[in-house]
Amino acid sequence: MEIKIALAGNPNSGKTTLFNDLTGSRQYVGNWPGVTVEKKEGKLKGQEYKDVIIQDLPGIYSLSPYTLEEVVSRTYLVTEKPDAIINIVDGTNIERNLYLTTQLLELNIPIIIALNMMDLVRKNGDKVDTKALSEALGCEVVELSALKSEGTEALVKKAIAIANANKLATANEVISGEAKEAIKKIENIIKGEVDEKFLHWNAIKAFERDEKVMESINLSESKKAEVEKVISECEKALDDDSESIITNERYNYITEVTDKAVIKGRKKGELSASDKIDRVVTNRILGLPIFAGIMFFIYAIAMGGWSISIGTAATDFTNDVIFGEWVPGLFDVILGALHVEEGTVLYGLIQDGIVAGVGAVIGFVPQMLVLFLLLSILEDIGYMARVAFVMDRIFRQFGLSGKAFIPCLVATGCGVPGVMASRTIENERDRRMSIMTTTFMPCGAKLPIIGLIAGAIFGGSPWIAASAYFIGIGSIVLSGIILKKFKAFAGIPAPFVMELPAYHVPSFVGVLRATWERGWSFIKRAGSVIVVSSVIIWFLTAFGNVNGHFGLVDELFEDEAVVTDEYINELSAKMDVPTTEVNSMDASLLASVGDAASIVFKPLGFGNWKPTVATVTGLVAKEEVVGTFGVLYSYDDMDGAEELGEEGEQIWDRVRADYTPIAAFSFMLFNLLCAPCFAAIGAIKREMNNRKWTWAAIGYMTGWAYVISLITYNLGGMIAGEVAFGFGTIVAIVLVVTLLYLIFRKGYQPKGNEGLEMAVKINA
Amino acid sequence: MPLSMADIDEIVVIKRISGSDEIKQHLAELGFVVGEEIHIVSKNGGNMIVKVKDSRIALDKGLANRIFI
User: Fold this and answer.
1) Do A495 and B29 touch (CB under 8 A)?
2) How many domains does chain B have?
3) So what's the ipTM on this one?
4) How far apart are alpha carbons A622 and A443 in whole angstroms?
5) Contact yes or no for B32/B17 (Cβ under 8 A)
6) Runs of H (alpha helix) within A318-446
7) pTM of the model
8) What is the dihedral of CA A104, A105, A108, A112, to 10 degrees?
9) What digits encode the pLDDT tens for the residues A224-243?
10) Least CB-CB distance to B25: which of A64, A268, A499?
11) Between the CA atoms of A117, A119, A120 and A126, what dihedral angle is there, to the nearest 10 degrees?
């Protein structure tokens, strides 16, 4: 028979670490509360356990959800009812963690307590008497260090045993005195309306006026009135509201338990190392400069053009040597052995389509791995949670909560989990706004775009990469200010309250694994989606209509009878390239389609068919922008002066020849900010759960990208002397004025409680 | 006085938490209950990091104003 065991506990108490250890899976673990926003199922490792399913749940502080991801846990524990619960209790913070335990005990499901982080408890000099704790709580308590996988074996065996025996906890009653009497009375009223087994739990929830439970019991009006009478009498007698009464009862009970079982080694008021670090990094004056410095340093190492820039060096090597010489050389040999001649369709497909397209993307993997490694270290240390705190002060001025920074942070890896991380935002309007703006952050797949532009046009300046990051944050902040003034988003953000994890030395294996997982998913996509798109792109560039003749454009271009000087001039005018630069690709199918669409991007400075096509393919996956560039710029020069071989640099040189710095920067901006890839759009659709809002999000992002790029190209270009004053300049100025108006206008003033709707209430 | 007025390194006892909404309940779940000791670790323009029970909680100014000590 299948046994379901749920892992329940406070956020950041190590549930996912234990889950990975028990099931052998590799779910993402981070050192901040709210990393897990979905429930995840896994089979317990080992043949003898093949019927045992372990369920990882988002962390919760109580069974009354406060944010959206907590609803998942409550629903699973209360409605679906696992066969047993492993309640993970952070041993360094027993009192607070036991609050949830007191609620779990009332669920009448077999439960075992896993006292986690015991290595830290010992290090702190605290003593926990597990036997006394177990007696006081009426259930088994097992010591554990999930990070070092100590004690997991024993825990699993016991959990399965209690599940099989359906052994319930024999807790002393948590609630005492008048409240206990009141709950007894409620039990008598609702008896028969609910399952006998869950009578006590339902009565307590009814006493707390829990809407969900009251709905599920479905009492008659007269019984409801009776319950309400009991509650208000008790509230009057104790001079407190019913929820607070229960909370106090729970804490009183916990104090009794911990008095018997826990001895603290550290004196109250003593500062731990974490506290001392917090004094510095969350300091009023130093907090922000430290954060900006760290981010700049990280991007400098990963993507800069200096001697410390390991990422850039590795990417240069991959581009110039591996994909510049080795791989094309290898394919030349293989193709030669198979008698596939240069100039044939198959040769072109493989070398100019697949090798060039995939190579252009893979080349950026080293840079990405370095960036991900550094970001993973920051997360694992516990610094990122502090950034949310430091940013709150700034975000709040603009009507955003610091919590909105967490999704942004996750989105620097990938937009999909970034959008999902918005579930930790309490206020529904703020949550929607977060979903709309989170993917402004440069995700991993956008790094190649940044890398290409920074490398090809700006000589690898780290400022380009760092600016991409701050443009992302800037767009989020400005969008926050602008959107908050509209009626649909008006309202004060929910107060900021967040638990900060203790700092710890990053786990070597954990960090490497997190880095590799992110990098690997990127490589996998390069091997699937990118191959397919590159092949399609190549086909569309290989065939076309040359002066009325349809066929392989390369072959047709060799034919002097077809390609007349007149035709070259015509093509050069149509495609907006100098006559000397016109080549076969400009006559391809893709060029004509791209050319027709390119008018849209003319005002942004890159209204040429190549970047237009690249931008559109970016919807499939953002790295495909660079993949497309790889295919489009890898054409053989007609004069054949340059041999295939230094391809990496060739692309850069050719890209440089095609764009002015400001047009390239505008192109980068548009691709960073516009609608994300299809995968992220899917995530937006799921989280919005509303068609109208999904389209509003996509429309807003694309509109924002367009406006920002247009302003940057026209005004920036004029300042740099690249763009002449004209109609575009006037439009840019009008847009700037409009933006300033939207930012500084008074905006809609919410009335009363308007805009304070909790996401939990609306979506649960 | 409100918690926001307390200085770094002070240890104070909660006397009252004003308001009655989801947030008050959430604060209670995090350990902010009447009679509990709070240790102020860091302050950043009214926002603060405090230790309550054994956890480290970041609060904004608005919330710190609602907790009386």
Assistant:
1) no
2) 1
3) 0.94
4) 9
5) yes
6) 327-337, 345-348, 356-362, 365-381, 383-397, 405-411, 415-420, 428-437
7) 0.83
8) 90
9) 899 999 999 999 998 888 88
10) A64
11) 100
CA angle B6, B11, B17 (to 5 degrees): 65
Domain that holds residue B37: 3-68
Pairwise CB contact (< 8 Å): B58 & A268: no
Question: Shortest Cα distance from A58 to chain B (angstroms)?
Answer: 16
CB contact under 8 A, A283 and B42: yes
Give the per-residue pLDDT at A639.
40
| Greatest extent of chain A over all pairs of C-alpha atoms, in Å | 102
| Torsion on CA atoms A519, A522, A526, A527, rounded to nearest 10 | 70
The two tokens of residue A601 are: 């991007």
Q: What are A581-638's pLDDT values in tens digits?
A: 777 888 889 888 889 899 999 999 998 899 999 999 888 888 889 888 888 887 544 3
Q: Does residue A628 contact residue A612 with C-beta atoms inside 8 Å? A: no
Q: What is the pLDDT of residues A197-213, one digit of tens each?
A: 888 888 999 999 888 88
| Mutation target among B11, B32, B34, B42 for the A interface, most CBs of A within 10 A | B42
Q: What is the dihedral of CA A23, A25, A29, A35, to 10 degrees?
A: -90
- The terminus-to-terminus CA distance of chain B in angstroms comes to 6
Task: Please name the member of A269, A274, A496 whose beta carbon is closest to the beta carbon of B56.
Answer: A274
Query: Taking the CB of residue A552, how many other CB atoms lie within 10 A of it?
Result: 18
pLDDT of residue A635: 55
Query: From the CA atom positions of chain A, what is the Rg in Å?
Result: 31
Q: How far is it, in rounded angstroms, from Cα A392 to Cα A268?
A: 28
Measured between CB atoms, which of A248, A402, A500 is closest to B33?
A: A248
Cβ contact, residue pair B26, A66, below 8 Å: yes
**A47 is written with which tokens?**
């043949």
Residue A295 Cα distances to A351, A470, A502, A571, angstroms: 38, 10, 21, 46
What CATH number does residue B56 fall under? 2.30.30.90
Residue among A430, A470, A176 nearest A296 (CA): A470
